[in-house]
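_Backbone structure tokens_
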Amino acid sequence: MWIMKPTARAQGKGIFLVNKLNQLKKWATNSKLPFQSLNLREAYVISRYIEKPLLVGGKKFDLRLYVLVTSYRPLKVWMNSGGFARFCTEKYTPDIAELDNMMI
């Protein structure tokens, strides 16, 4: 299973799941992409959905870390010390029926 996230949105808006990567070709040709009249396409990040995520107190979480890459050969990365953790308000359930819940 794969999760598609639009890069310019927040709060779970525009996220959807696909079972197989070949479904994305059909989605790309049939979707009503925003800004179509301007010949712009919305950018997405696709990643494998983690079915057994790391939990803290039974809840999912993410880390927000801010980095600046100044060189990739050799790799030079500067990390800001002002990162933070965000925790889900509800306990995680692996129930497939809950996959449309934006809190997963």
About this structure: Residues 53-104 form one domain. The chain has a mean pLDDT of 82.
